[in-house]
Amino acid sequence: MEIINIEAGTFREMVMSIQLLKEKLENLKGNQTSKSLDDWMDNQEVCMALNISQRTLQAMRGNGTLPFSQIDRKTYYRRQDIIRLIEKGKKR
């Protein structure tokens, strides 16, 4: 085990720098809006919300009824698009 000695002033500066960094990170975290992963739904969530099968969902993607994004092999849908689709169905 290696022991390193530093001056008290240098140690205080290091601690203050770490605290400042911590505060900045907390501010960034606080500034983060709700537009996170909570705004996206996966296939299973959409099927449950719309009460449809996976195949129907696939057809809706294919014919352009429902916009989507794909990351690797996983498909995501914006929550607002699902809500819009539900409201559109209610108006009919």
What can you tell me about this protein's structure?
The protein has 92 residues and is mainly alpha-helical. The protein has helices spanning 8-31, 43-50, 54-62, 79-91; strands at residues 40-42, 69-71, 74-78. A three-stranded antiparallel β-sheet has the order 1-3-2. The longest helix has 24 residues, at 8-31. The mean pLDDT is 89.
Count the DSSP helices.
4
Cross-sheet strand order for the largest sheet: 1-3-2
The outline comes out as elongated
**Series of H and E elements:** HEHHEEH
Strand content: 5-15%
Regarding quaternary structure, what we see is: single chain
Q: Point out poorly predicted stretches.
A: none
Query: How far from one another are the termini?
Result: 74 Å
Structural class, please?
A: mainly alpha
Major β-sheet profile: 3 strands, antiparallel
Percent helix among the residues? 55-70%
Radius of gyration: 24 Å
Mean pLDDT: 89
Task: Tell me how many strands there are.
Answer: 3
Features:
92 residues; mainly alpha; 3 strands; 12% strand; elongated
Compile the SSE list and pairings.
Elements (H helix, E strand, L loop, with lengths): L7 H24 L8 E3 H8 L3 H9 L6 E3 L2 E5 H13 L1
Antiparallel strand pairs: 1-3, 2-3
Short characterization:
By secondary structure, this protein is mainly alpha-helical.
